[in-house]
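Service request form, structural biology core

Requester: graduate student, group of Dr. S.
Request type: structure prediction, single chain
Budget code: on file
Notes: please return the result as structure tokens.

Sequence provided:
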Amino acid sequence: MPINGRYYDWEHISIQVKGVPLADVLSIDYEDSEKVNAIFGKGRTPRGYTKGNWEGSGKLTLLREEYDRLRAVAPEGNVFKLEPFDIVVSYDKGTATVTDTLKDCLFTKRSFGGVEQDTEKVTVELEFTVLGGVEHS
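Core staff response, request fulfilled:
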């Protein structure tokens, strides 16, 4: 429910990786899914279902300076060598904080962008997989 008509905006969101707050984050996207398998018998419609594997993934886009700070805490400066870590995304408007904790994440891909003349910012996208689930509190 909005407070005085104000909904969440970027000012209300804070992001931590390995317990360290990130300041120069441009965006974070994350999702999870669970496979459902339809079971067919006689007829054209499913008679039931089974559940398959759960999957979670996401993408963190940050400025190159923030990426360099993250590399500084990674073994050998390589974000792919980090042990599984939590990403905590908090939404806070001053009344109650809502938190999504992405458990046991690992970076799986990195992309560098904005490296050209007259670019206002140099960015790094880090894709990650979520191994331990998503907790909401």
